[in-house]
């Protein structure tokens, strides 16, 4: 009985310790990114009659990653979200400190049951409760992965408040290359299976976003283009569908990109933007991308 009590007391202590953030206050309204973010907002204003979907790999600051402490970068990321106001955003490499920083610095909600604060995944979807309603959600861990915390998919079924139209978003982070039991091509195949199942189940436009570590312009491995083309067999890269494109100085549309927003179904893609402004180099090793769409 005493051993049982001590064991449970130890578990409680561990839970309490890990329930508190290891980060500092992340968000201040005035910071050095304000001017460039406000300029982007004026150039690409978010109209009330469009849906804005974003994808961003934040670069975790936990062991095994190369990111500087999240609290040093969080004000810029929070300002991007608070100013550009995506309705739904797929985030990758959301370590514990990022989870707490985003909770403190924005009003976005995380899809439940995804909790990156302690035992959850590092792939998350956040959404604006003022503009969309979450109706269903789930999480899928790739069966062949050795790291289910990182290599997984999170999905949500949403309804636009203004139109009552429904749409799906899947967010994922595929492996960079073959490693151990990880196979990025098999992961891409699993994403397609998941997308087909959700599309048939809910019968609405589906966007799958994320860091796919693949592109038609192969960079990291010989299977990169194959993975990208596999994804394009059942969906469209929204960059090819958009009426308007925009980017910053550091990256254009002829550059390799691991980050994509694919569409399965029917939707009007009004705008595709890569936020590759030089200022954002300090925030992550990826640039945020977003689309404005009408479903």
Describe the structure.
- The structure is a single chain.
- The chain is an alpha+beta fold and 295 residues long.
- The protein is built from six helices and 13 strands.
- The strands form two sheets. The chain has a seven-stranded mixed beta sheet, with no helix packed on it. A six-stranded mixed beta sheet has the order 5-6-7-8-11-9, with helices on one face.
- It starts with a helix and ends with a strand.
Short characterization:
By secondary structure, this protein is of the alpha+beta class.
Order of helices and strands: HHEHEHEEEEEHEHEEEEE
Rg result: 19 Å
With helices defined by DSSP (H or I, 4 residues minimum), what is the helix count?
6
Low-pLDDT residue spans: 14-21
Shape: globular
Distance between the termini: 59 Å
By secondary-structure content and strand pairing, the structural class works out as alpha+beta
* Tally of strands: 13
- The main sheet orders its strands as 3-4-2-1-13-12-10
Main sheet specs: 7 strands, mixed
* Rounded average pLDDT: 86
Helix content: 25-40%
Task: Report strand %.
Answer: 25-35%
